[in-house]
Amino acid sequence: MHPNCLRTTATPHVFRRHPRVARRLVAVAGALALLLAAPTAASAGAAVDVRTTGAAGDDGAALGPADTDPVLNPTTARLAGADRYETAVAISRAGHPEGSPVVYVASGVGFADALSAGPAAAHAGGPLLLTPSSALPSVIRSEIERLAPEQIVVVGGEGAVSADVYAKLAALAPDIRRDSGPDRYATSRVVNERAFGGDGPFTVSLVATGRDYPDALSAGATAGAWGVPVILVDGLASRADAETKALLQRLGIRGVHIVGGTGAVTAGVEKDLGTVLVDGVARQAGRDRYETSVRVNAAVFGSADEALLATGGDFADALAGAALAGSVPMPLWVVPKTCVPKLTLGEGRYLGVTRYTLLGGRGALDDRVASLDQC
After folding, report:
1. Pick from 161, 152, 111: which is nearest to 334 by CA?
2. What is the rounded distance in angstroms from the CA atom of residue 189 to the CA atom of residue 209?
3. How many CA atoms lie within 13 A of 247 on its CB side?
4. Which of 126, 181, 198, 339 has a Cα-to-Cα distance from 348 of 20 to 30 A?
């Protein structure tokens, strides 16, 4: 890796959509136990910062064979804006340069609603945009006008996206609806019922805690790539709630992957979910959020040309990126602000990743991540 050979390119990158995902795991009826198991434990105003690394040395001299191998010396780029809302727009523009039939909109202040909204947006073929509760940013309005959707789906109740913001959004598309329930778990069920109902049965779904975001950040992107829902549960409960078990049956889901260890989703919930699933339950968990991110992506991807990197220290960029990752599809790994874990880089080499796109500005992921400095 040559950290000093960064250069800026003005040519926008076009993400290539693949007709299928090469999967490491083969679906076999009744064999979830054989799946990759883990230990239990902007409008024009949105800036898109694109930087490429690994092309040549500072003096322009030709690099050796190892240095020119695109897998050993991948390039990096950055999608970023001045804040999380502009970054979401930059991600939307990169993924949907010619518009979109649908746009999902969720709160940029809370994480829970957007965890299920990302894969739902990918399933519908649209981006996920973020908004404050009480005001619609002009950059979001302009991006929706550019996308010219037939439908806008607002995720969350009026405490998440106010009636005033909803009214402003309603003026931007022929059709609008609100997917919400009395709490985050009910909202997740409504989002998934409306987005995926009638399209099943599904071999598998992802289940994540709705109490916190670290382990669940990669779930949305992975589910989007797999074309399946992310269903939120109360991870500290002693058993699964009846409404979630009923939803799994209505959607025809045969098995689930729980994202995170037993500290995120209890063994009691895991056991109870297994009582209504033909193929049972697998758990994708690592020693920390970064290893969990690698593990949950490994359940889907056996190869990938490109991958996304987002901070594991906050939720907004990874949530907006989930719809892009799901629509291409490609892995989305969460990483620290200052480096890329050795396990993540090793998985990238295994998959054949030749290009990493960072989500968010230098306050989220600094230039050491752009240089793919290992930690």
Report:
1. 111
2. 13
3. 28
4. 126
Sequential pLDDT tens for the chain (375 residues) = 333 232 223 345 656 554 434 333 333 222 233 232 333 333 333 343 433 333 323 333 333 344 446 767 999 999 999 999 999 999 999 999 999 999 999 999 999 999 999 999 999 999 999 999 999 999 999 999 999 999 999 999 999 999 999 999 999 999 999 999 999 999 999 999 999 998 888 989 999 999 999 888 889 889 988 899 999 999 999 999 999 999 999 999 999 999 999 999 999 999 999 999 999 999 999 999 999 999 999 999 999 999 999 999 999 999 999 999 998 999 999 999 999 999 999 999 999 999 999 999 999 999 999 999 999
Task: Please give the Cα distance from 160 to 175 (Å, whole number).
Answer: 20
Q: Which long-range contacts (C-beta less than 8 Å, at least 24 apart) are formed by 82-85? A: 82/47, 82/361, 84/108, 84/130, 84/316, 84/317, 84/320, 84/360, 85/129, 85/130, 85/131, 85/132, 85/137, 85/139, 85/140
H or E element: which one contains 350? Answer: helix 342-351
Q: How far apart are CA 340 and CA 353, in angstroms?
A: 14
154: nearest Cα among 115, 193, 113: 113
Model pTM score: 0.84
Instruction: Give the SS3 label for residue 194.
Output: helix
> At CA 299, angle to CA 293 and CA 305, rounded to 5?
80
* Contact present, 88 and 114 (Cβ < 8 Å): no
Q: Among 19, 360, 322, 297, which residue's Cα sits nearest to residue 191?
A: 322
Phi, psi of 135 (to 5 degrees): -150, 140
**How far is Cα 91 from Cα 100, in angstroms, rounded to an integer?**
13
- Can you tell me the distance from the alpha carbon of 88 to that of 316, in angstroms, rounded to the nearest whole number? 8
CA distances from residue 223 to 206, 230, 267 in whole angstroms, order as listed = 7, 6, 22
